[in-house]
Amino acid sequence: MEESGEVFRSFSWTLPHGHCLAGYFNSNKEAEWYSDRLLHNLKIDGTKDHVFFQRNNEKFKAELEGAEVPLSQLHYRGAGSEDPHKAGHTVETRALLEMLRQACAKIALSGIQRGRVSCNFVSDVDSSPIALSLDFFEDGSTRSLADLENLHKGASKGWDKLSQHAWCGRKLSTTLQQTNLWDIYLFLIWSKHNPSSKIWEQFSVHLYPKVVFLAGYLLEAYVDELANLPLAPLPLLKTKHGNSRRVPKVNKIILLQRVKAQKRHRGEVMQTHTDLTPPQIALVRAEANLEVAEYVKLLTTAFADTQHVQVSWDASTYDVETLVAIAYDYKKNVSGYLPIQNISPVQTAELHETVRTLAVQGRITRVESYNTMRSFSHALNSIGLPLAAFAKPPDLLLGPLRAEEERVLMNGTYFIYNTTTQSIQRQVPTAWSLPKQPLLISVSDQGPLNCPGLDHLQFKLRGFVLPLYDQSHRTWNDLKSAMRSVKLFRILLQFSIIYNMNYGPGGTKAWMAKKQQYAEEFRAKQTADGQIFLSYMPYICHEMGLSEPTTAEEREALFGTITSLQTLQQHGPLVKLMRWFSYFQSHQFYAGEHFWTKMLIGEGGPPQQGIQPEAVLTPDILAGNLDDREELRQLKLKMGSWRLAPLLVTPWTWWKNELLVSMATPVWSCFTQKAQQLKLPHEIAGDIAKRAGTKLWAEEIHAVIGNGFFDGPQKLYPARFLSNEEEGQCISLHFRRRAELRFVLPPTAFSICWGTSCRKQGDHPSPDACRLGSRLEEKAMAGGAGMEPLKEMHWRLNSVNRLIHLIRDMAEVASTTAERRAYNNQVVELLTFVSTHLADTVIVENTHQMAKDALRDARHFQKSRTGKQVACIRCSAIPSRGVPCLKVSDDQKATASAGKSSSFDKLTHPNTHALKKEFQRLMETKTKQHTWPSTTQQMEWQQVVATEWFLCYMQDGDKFAAGPNSAWLSVLAGAAGEVVACQRAGEIMLILAVGSYGFAAWDLELAAGVRTAAGMSAFRPYRHNAIRFHHITELEDWVSVPVKPGLSGPHGPLHLEQTSEAMSLPLARIHAGLNLTCKQCQDLLALFKVNFRKNQSRASLHGLILDLFLETEHEKEEARRKMAACLLPQEEEHAEDSDMEELLEQLEDLENQGDPEIQEEKEKIKQRRTGRIAVPRAAGPDEGEQVPKRKAKAKAPPKQRKKGLLEPKMK
Fold first, then answer.
1. Is the Cα dihedral 1106, 1108, 1110, 1113 positive or negative?
2. Which of 566, 823, 927, 1193 has a CA-to-CA distance to 525 between 20 and 30 Å?
């Protein structure tokens, strides 16, 4: 049996008289025999085996020495030994033979190899020395003792005596002319136990050690063959008082193998196997405790010397909010679950005095974020790396240079010189070493609880932490936002009811059988020429991509496929909470069968029939007074899901569903392909390097736009039921994808240096990849303090990024080749570290799902920390990706000693792990002195744009006469989906996303041969890689081109038709609804030399801009109306809650009925609406941070209140 790379080989040997000896092969491949069974067979039951060894220790030494058997073959595992009470006391084979002298039995062996043993003794005939050699044949016999009578008469007579008279019930069965090894062995033992004769002293004592060695070798070879047999249980031994002796290890392993498939109630099942173990042993009573204790030991050992670690972590609700984290060491290629953390409220007693004072005054915030980071740090503390371990050494100078500082190079070493104090300090301390510096990559969701803490850690404390955020969550949020913007998210919710029908009602799957019955009845009662089938036939053929039948035979063939529909044979995928891509999988499953389904269960209604009858629609629905959620809820209550589902499928809704899937398929398919193809860390590292080195980071955007403009229209158009007004909806989904732009941000931008070429040659990384060195920053700062783009490049404040720059700079100034190679190797090591990781939190979410499934049937077990940890480490989330992970083998559990569960519980209590004051200052309100950047989706995009502009300007600043801040004019380009043109370059482009200092756009070309009704041009995107960054520094070169989408032919491709003359960018923004900040308004007015006051209000600044570009009061009033509409607060979050709650209610009808995850999400929505917890809001003073609101005080009796607990406060 093989577990965790080790093989446990057990054997048992039953003697002819029924005695059973057993043992196992140790790590040195030597057989060890259980001493308790040996003493039991020797009838020494009255004494415990360890007492027997202690009392006979000196005697054993003498006997083993006489047989030339080393004392190390006796393994006493009592108190004071290296491995006490692990496997019981054992003896090796030669020591076993010495102890079995009084119970020796004949052994049937086959295939004994030829061998020879030799010894010297003194003849009792003439007292001459004689050299005796015994040659054995393959059957174990020998003729070498045929002349023993002439060599030693006493021995010859003894042989004859033992042949005639039994000793201890045994006598010799062969003659001296041809005897065997085992008769020789019996004769030698007999002579040893007959001290009256001198045979032992003169003859046997010289031959006995040689025979013992040969017999031990043969016996070990025999049990080696026995060990290859399947594991067999050993009989349980009892003491003289009837108590159980030590349970054999092999029995425990067999027990674990028998219950391996038992996921729940393992303890109860184990207690029934009394033939293997007594029910009261620790393995049966507390298997989870044993497994967790051994797992913690494995985890501590595996990460004992780890300094560079990556952790994927996420929290979910079990009985309480529980954090699960997976640590990965890329050097050892090993991963493991850190101890789970039961997130509990922060207590005031844990806080530093100054923070506690603010807490009492109600002046703290981000309490939940601190609580999350404290739990994360406590989990890391189990491997000796709490968050405090990643603090930057104070004498390592990595921060951006202040105004009074300069970096100077002296003798190949960088120093920081302070011009004010005239002091100089080495930038890198002599004793500092990269291998000894702890580094952390944190992979988590981009949520409101972890982002503030991670931002504080990396930007304020400058710790060696590189936060990465899961892209799958960002993908779904972007996709959902795009669907909502074009009113398609309701279509997703409606069709979820249809896709989940096979599992209804309430998860019983009874509707699947009902659909099959309807299909059989339809096949029996209707015909291919019936009115119902003929009315649906055009839509069925159109959905299946078939030509309509023209003959009766073709119609009959199509009609005959009813009972063989895929949706009638299989249940298919289930649209489930937190598995957003399951909707697209369900659509694939139902492809071509939507109208079939409507026809079968629609009770004869026409294809166009929707929710229209007056008997169904209530007055509120008819008046439009209800939102989508309430409307669907009332319809479901009145009609039921079975009757409602076919009414949700109409030609128009089906087309919108096809539009949704067509536009979104590249997004989810790209995600699923990555999840299927990129599982191992080295595969992820290669993908990051590939995308950072090329424009593959834009692959997803290429797929979305290419599909929307060229491939999608081939299937979607023409649609006989599509109005001209509704055609424009298909364009909006094209411009919302930008999550993959993370690949152009450091340090992943440097990852193309990662590879074997850098490792082998030791050359410095490519200048194109590592161009973002600290010297560019120094050059920019030396040019003046007005380099505004640097303020948005927050990545440069991260200590890991700065360390890469610093070591690379040290490599360039190294004096010797060896030093340069050493520094470059460190750069490669850092780039490998930041690229080789698990990349996402999907693996943690899968762990949550599997662990909850394992615990769901035993609700009382969910409160056990040990139970949750065991459920995590037993799940297959990590092994399913092929990543090596720690695992407690059956061998380890069988030999583990019972420990207290309280020892593990301490590892799961974050309250025992108070962070230092500098970490606790996270909860202080931000001020001008106490501030740091905050990570949001918009901030990450602004970083990308600012970095691209910074590089463009620093490489050729002479081209931009207006200075480094002139690219702010890019904010006037417009929104995603608009078209702008650069007149100087003769380029026209489609805007994808706009930032403060630039925008990403897709180059357009003229659609040849296509003109609008007004004679204007039409444009379409280039099919090839045409996404670029652009920066507007002069307004005179750029104009905005009004366009609308159209089709170049019946089946496309899609193009953009110019609707009117181009206009200047400021005027275009005014017509769209001006929404500039005060700073941007001031810069725009200054550009046109319009006077204004510095403290002037935003509204008055907007008025000056309107006076500058508009002439009539009517135009100004219309512009003010559009600006007011743009400035209205958006209710997107409540709309999102309505849509999500609607989806949850639909899913709760099906297999997920009563699912605690759904109940949890609904409770969160309810709390958000009542203001009990925070909702995401627009960016404010804290740059988009989300602060939990203060909870209402409970009206519990005073004795039930928990004192000292912190509650979230609003700032």
1. positive
2. 566
